[in-house]
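pls design
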């Protein structure tokens, strides 16, 4: 079985993190992934501290395995959430959409393992100096907020830049992606889109169906004009935003208003017209709904087989 030092550092069986997806990564999915041997994550999204406190406590009722919290640093409640994480003694925190240094000053001395998502080697080096236990190098193939570099280009450069373990993210949905990540030097993987179709994932059935029906060309990045690009599945909302971004008569405020609340409309209400169905480019590889445990076991079984046979391929 594939096991790396990230397993020992975090206390997990398989070196896989479940992505921290707003309106998706709540306590039921996080507990299922942790019970399956991975690291489940609760998304703090833009909610307040008491929402997160409830989610943490509900998750603890469902699992005695390690789980973590993902903090979106752009949230207006980030400072409140950071305090709740300390009070609830969360063992692992992943961060995105900003630099976590101000919070790491308290998290790291408290024994919390901080694993920031990084889009570049410069940021990877910075968070390592600030005490990160590992980093997640996420390529632009991923769903949700994306950077500029692809996973294939970013992961090996981050591996060369830091001494802490690197988790590869973006474009990983099966054993082939896991094997490729390890060949690039990663010590683990993070998957988001694949867990959208876990049985335990609580999103609306319309969201799961859109992922299952996706083709290879069915994702698009919107929001580049706003400085916050987001990858999602094509639908009427994404087309409308795309047109507005190229229309100089439309203001940024109009675009932002159109997108406000769109992820919730997708994940909770299943609104296929005005919802934003965030998903990565590997959505087309997701063909069925399975329990989180089956997803993880099959993924690593395939990866182990491919890695063991790798020498035979290059003859």
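designed seq:
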């Amino acid at each position: 079985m594939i096991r790396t030092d990230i397993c020992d550092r975090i206390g997990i069986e398989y070196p896989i993190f479940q992505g921290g997806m707003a309106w998706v990564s709540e306590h039921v999915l996080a507990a299922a992934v942790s019970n399956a041997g991975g690291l489940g994550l609760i998304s703090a999204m833009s909610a307040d501290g008491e929402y997160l406190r409830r989610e943490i406590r509900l998750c603890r009722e469902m699992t005695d395995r390690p789980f973590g919290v993902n903090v979106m640093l752009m949230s207006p409640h980030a400072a409140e959430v950071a305090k709740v994480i300390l009070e609830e003694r969360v063992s692992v925190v992943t961060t995105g959409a900003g630099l976590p240094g101000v919070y790491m000053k308290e998290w790291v001395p408290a024994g919390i393992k901080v694993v920031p998502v990084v889009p570049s080697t410069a940021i990877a080096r910075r968070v390592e100096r600030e005490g990160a236990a590992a980093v997640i190098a996420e390529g632009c193939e991923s769903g949700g907020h994306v950077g500029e570099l692809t996973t294939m280009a970013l992961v090996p450069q981050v591996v060369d830049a830091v001494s802490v373990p690197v988790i590869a993210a973006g474009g990983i949905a099966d054993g082939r992606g896991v094997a490729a990540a390890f060949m690039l030097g990663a010590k683990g993987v993070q998957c988001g889109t694949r867990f959208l179709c876990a049985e335990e994932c609580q999103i609306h059935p319309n969201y799961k169906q859109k992922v299952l029906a996706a083709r290879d060309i069915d994702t698009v990045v919107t929001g580049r004009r706003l400085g916050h690009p987001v990858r999602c599945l094509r639908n009427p909302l994404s087309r409308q935003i795309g047109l507005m971004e190229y229309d100089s008569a439309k203001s940024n405020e109009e675009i932002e208003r159109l997108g406000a609340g769109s992820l919730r409309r997708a994940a909770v209400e299943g609104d296929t017209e005005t919802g934003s169905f965030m998903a990565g480019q590997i959505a087309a590889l997701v063909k069925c709904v399975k329990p989180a445990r089956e997803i993880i076991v099959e993924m690593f079984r395939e990866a182990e087989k491919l890695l063991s046979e790798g020498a035979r391929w290059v003859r």
